[in-house]
Structures are given as structure tokens and as C-alpha cells.
Write a structure and sequence with these properties.
Length: about 300
């Protein structure tokens, strides 16, 4: 008669350790997660979930050699273990072993061409190599498979910026905002891009949204003041700049902005004082020094 109790007990213990390891993992307690998984490995050294879990935690702990060791154990059991291939590729990628990483990601794509992760990782390889056209192709393939993944839209936008295709990049940034209207870094990037393109009203709209999300952001208050200076809305500009200085009087760029305000309104003495404050706070800043030099000539 075969005793199944011992086997079932061991299996149950392994499952409990995996579950506990996952709990620690989700709490970012990676050392504790690893301890649980290594205990599970001692009980069942051929368990693919355990092997992949250990490898993944080692990557997060930046122990890439150990991650590679456990991925190879998983692949020795199942050479077509898709997740192990991705983890192994990531370990090599983070060690800057690009050719090995690419080879593994391509194998993963062959096994599961419907995986957005596999296509994304291939895109990341080519982005690292500054082969932006190829990277874009793979990222767009990934987003076609996982259209709800916000980070894919963000990555595509960044890649389009690398290709100097700002119009398309901005479309993708706005797609991110459709899915997450409070994506703070996206509002910041769009505010910057609109400002660079002299689309000041659009930049204002982005900055006002940022201020709702972060009312004490003195840098953005200063930038909003600069937008109002460009738009000729001087009262709004002064209000924003003064508020920014109340929050942080040691930010040189805000003093520069206040200097610009006073220069526009004809108060050269005040402008000189503000530019001097900017230079005192950041003596190496060329723009501050140039503004101070120019106002001194006018005085």
C-alpha cells in the first residue's frame, strides 16, 4: 500500500511556503520572501514556481549570478519555461550582457508571441542600443497585446521623443492621461513640451493641473509664473512667483523670474536686486549672470 499522506503533507507545506513568500514579496520584504522560497526549494527542488520565484527575488536583490543559477535549474527541467527565459534575460540585461539577453527574449517570443512582456523586453534591448525605430516597433507590438498597460504608452512616448517625433510623443502622453488623469510626471512632461513649443496656454493648463495635485510645488509655481510672463498676464505672474518664494526663498530661478517681472514693468533697480539674489544662490548659472550683466548695462 502506497503512503500518500507524506507526499500530500510535503506538497501542502510547499504551497504554504510559496504563499507566505508571495505575501512577503508583495510587502517588499524580499529577504523574507527568499527565505520562504529557499525552504520550499529544499522540500521540492524541481518545482518551477519555486525556482522562478527564487530567481526573481535574487534579481530584485541585485544578485544576478544567483538569479541565473536558479533560472538555469528551471530551464534544465523545462527548456521552454517562458517565464524563466524572461527572468534569465532580465538578469543578463541588468548585467549589460545585451546579446545574451536579446537571444533569450527572442526565444521567449517564439514560445509565446502573445506576451506583451516579451515584446517589451525586446524593445528595451533596442532602446538601450539606441536603435529607436526597432524599439518603437516592439513597444507598439506590446501595447497592441496589452492596451491597458499605461507604462507601455509612456515608454512609446519616450521613444518617440528619442526619434524627435514630438507630435506623436505628445499624443501618447495624452493617452496615458486618458487612462490615469492624475499621472503627475506626465503632466510635468507635457507642461515642459508645450512651453518649449511656445504653446503657453496649453502649458498653463498642464501646470494648473499639477498645482491641484501638488499645491506646494514651488518649482511649478515659478514655471507657471514664467508662462504668465510670456502671456503678458503680469498680475498672475507676480502672484505665482511671490507664492513660490514664500515656499522656498532659496531657489535661484524664482528670483530670476521675479527679476524678469521687474524688468518688464520698468523697475530696473528691483530687477537688479533679484538677479543679484539669483547669482548669489547659484553663482555658476550662466543665465543668471547674463541677466545681471545686462541689467547693469541698462542702469
Amino acid at each position: 500500500m502506497i503512503n500518500l499522506t507524506k507526499k500530500n503533507t510535503k506538497q501542502s507545506e510547499v504551497e504554504e511556503l510559496i504563499e507566505l513568500g508571495l505575501t512577503h514579496y508583495e510587502l517588499y520584504e524580499y529577504d523574507k520572501a527568499l527565505d520562504c522560497l529557499l525552504q520550499a526549494f529544499e522540500l521540492e527542488p524541481t518545482n518551477g514556481i519555486v525556482l522562478r520565484g527564487i530567481a526573481n527575488v535574487y534579481i530584485l536583490l541585485k544578485d544576478f549570478e544567483k538569479a541565473i543559477e536558479y533560472c538555469e535549474k528551471a530551464l534544465a527541467i523545462n527548456p521552454k519555461d517562458f517565464t524563466a527565459l524572461l527572468i534569465l534575460g532580465s538578469a543578463y540585461f541588468q548585467q549589460h550582457k545585451i546579446e545574451k539577453a536579446e537571444s533569450l527574449f527572442r526565444k521567449a517570443v517564439e514560445i509565446n508571441p502573445e506576451s506583451s512582456d516579451a515584446w517589451f523586453n525586446l524593445g528595451a534591448i533596442h532602446k538601450t542600443l539606441k536603435e529607436y525605430d526597432k524599439a518603437l516597433e516592439y513597444f507598439q507590438k506590446a501595447v497592441s497585446l496589452e492596451p491597458e498597460d499605461i507604462m507601455l504608452y509612456f515608454t512609446i512616448a519616450e521613444t518617440l521623443e528619442n526619434l524627435d517625433n514630438i507630435d506623436e510623443a505628445m499624443k501618447y502622453y495624452y493617452l496615458v492621461l486618458e487612462k490615469d488623469p492624475e499621472a503627475y510626471p506626465i503632466w510635468i512632461r507635457l507642461a515642459e513640451l508645450h512651453y518649449e513649443r511656445k504653446e503657453f496656454k496649453k502649458s498653463e493648463k498642464c501646470m494648473l493641473k499639477i498645482m491641484k495635485l501638488d499645491p506646494e510645488n514651488h518649482i511649478m509655481l515659478n514655471n507657471l509664473g514664467c508662462v504668465y510672463l510670456e502671456l503678458g498676464e503680469l498680475k498672475k505672474a507676480l502672484k505665482c512667483i511671490n507664492k513660490a518664494l514664500k515656499i522656498n526663498a532659496d531657489f535661484s530661478h524664482t528670483w530670476h523670474s521675479l527679476g524678469e517681472y521687474h524688468e518688464i514693468t520698468g523697475n530696473k533697480e528691483k530687477a537688479h536686486e533679484c538677479y543679484q539674489n539669483a547669482v548669489d544662490l547659484d553663482p555658476e548659472n550662466r543665465e543668471h549672470k547674463e541677466a545681471l550683466k545686462n541689467i547693469q548695462k541698462k542702469n
